[in-house]
Specification:
Layout (H helix, E strand, L loop, with lengths): L1 H18 L4 H15 L4 H13 L1 H22 L2 H10 L5 H12 L8 H11 L7 H12 L10 H10 L3 H24 L6 H12 L9 H8 L1 H11 L4 H16 L3 H8 L2 H22 L2 H10 L5 H16 L2 H12 L7 H16 L5 H10 L3 H26 L1
Organism: Desulforamulus aquiferis
Pfam families: DUF401 (PF04165)
Protein name: DUF401 family protein
């Protein structure tokens, strides 16, 4: 029981620091320090562990991958590939309702912090002649942007989950890609079903999408494939068991050559403040995991929780869900909860899938999730009416994951 109280104190510190807008990296390092001290790790061993975490090859590899993802995103944005993606999408002969949902999904290919703010104006324009309420627009913009959290290896949360659990990234993607489809179908049914048989609404929707900027007709699908090749190429390489670092380096080099991207902005991107934040974020998150293990906290917590007689599966769901709700950040959710939940089980694709999907659901229904806050602010929506529609489909996905786990494990 004492061990549980200690970890609750550490969790409380994490929540307080994040509420005060302290960076996630600094928050995790400070919390790791408190964790070590509470569980009997002295200052000298604690500092030594911080240093060992920083120079560990796995830490360096993960930091490298995240920095390379940031550079890839910057190159794609600065060369106009993101705009080209959207333009090619808008030329496809899609159902107008599908097109509306596809706008935030396409923008969501690149995991920008608070990226929902980029897709919000396009969603607003596409739905301008329709009877959607501001809260409906919040749901569309927020929900469909996050469908790639499960399977796109450019998302830091997925990389962290693979690193902490030890389950290969390609294996996680194979386990979790169906949930991206389920997420999209659930969102589509939930928000668009009132308009499915309404011809006037459909006509208004089409008028709204026609108001979006379009270029001349052409081979739209081929254009979309060409503008998204760095993304699907990275996924294919990871599925072929090529390391994420090598995959992104290869894709990035080809993209730089294709776009004749100059060296100067590339170097400038590397030395941006965001790079330092990525280093601290990764270091702090992995230090938390290592201090949990080095201080013996994992064993103490496992024994304490086991004494209550809870099923490991219940812990596997509730802990990531709760941490996700409290932090609103998937990286923090994975970094804090995964070292604990993985101590209760022998990590496998099924177990990690269930824990990860629970974490994503928790983050999605967190009232402090940045994308939710930005979407509500942009559409001038009511918070309560925007928040309530997220609960049922998010928790339903967890239920589906639990059913899949029971059948497939």
């Amino acid at each position: 029981m004492v061990a549980i109280l200690k970890i609750l104190l550490v969790f409380s510190l994490i929540i307080i620091l994040l509420r005060k807008r302290i960076s996630l990296g600094t928050t995790m390092l400070v919390s790791s320090g408190l964790l070590g001290l509470l569980f009997g790790l002295g200052p000298a061993p604690l500092l030594k562990q911080f240093f060992l975490t920083l120079i560990h090859p796995a830490t360096i590899s993960l930091i490298s991958a995240l920095v390379l993802i940031m550079i890839l995103e910057s190159v794609m944005r600065n060369t106009g590939m993101l705009k080209a993606m959207t333009d090619s999408l808008l030329k496809l002969p899609l159902n107008p309702l599908v097109l509306i949902a596809s706008i935030p999904a396409i923008i969501g290919f690149l995991p920008s912090a608070g990226g929902a703010r980029f897709s919000a104006p396009l969603v607003d324009q596409a739905t301008s002649n329709m009877s959607f309420q501001p809260e409906d627009k919040v749901f569309i913009n927020y929900w469909f942007r996050h469908m790639w959290e499960y399977c796109l290896p450019l998302y830091p949360g997925l990389l962290l989950a693979a690193h902490i659990s030890g389950v290969p990234l390609g294996t996680l993607i194979l386990w979790q890609w169906p949930f991206a489809v389920i997420w999209a179908l659930l969102g589509y049914w939930y928000i668009f079903r009132p308009f499915g048989g309404d011809k006037e609404a459909a006509a208004a929707t089409e008028a709204g999408t026609e108001a979006l900027p379009k270029q001349e007709e052409g081979h739209s699908l081929m254009d979309l494939i060409k503008t998204t090749w760095p993304l699907w190429c990275t996924v294919l390489l990871v599925l072929a068991h090529v390391s994420i670092v090598i995959s992104i380096i290869g894709v990035l080099l080809l993209l730089i050559i294709q776009k004749r991207y100059p060296l100067q902005p590339l170097i400038k991107t590397i030395f941006e403040p965001l790079t330092a934040r990525i280093v601290f974020l990764t270091w702090g998150t992995l230090a938390f995991k290592d201090v949990l293990e080095a201080s013996g906290a994992v064993n103490q917590l496992s024994s304490a929780i086991s004494s209550f007689g809870f099923s490991p599966v219940i812990i596997l769901i509730l802990l990531p869900l709760a941490v996700g709700m409290l932090t609103g950040l998937l990286q923090a959710c994975i970094g804090v909860s995964f070292p604990l939940v993985m101590s209760f089980i022998e990590p496998s694709g099924a177990y990690v899938m269930l824990a990860y999907i629970s974490g994503v659901a928790g983050v999605m229904i967190s009232p402090v999730h940045l994308c939710l806050v930005l979407s509500i602010e942009y559409f001038k929506a009511d918070f309560t009416r925007s928040y309530k529609p997220l609960l049922m489909p998010s928790l339903l996905v967890v239920g589906i994951a639990l059913g899949a786990f029971a059948v497939l494990r």
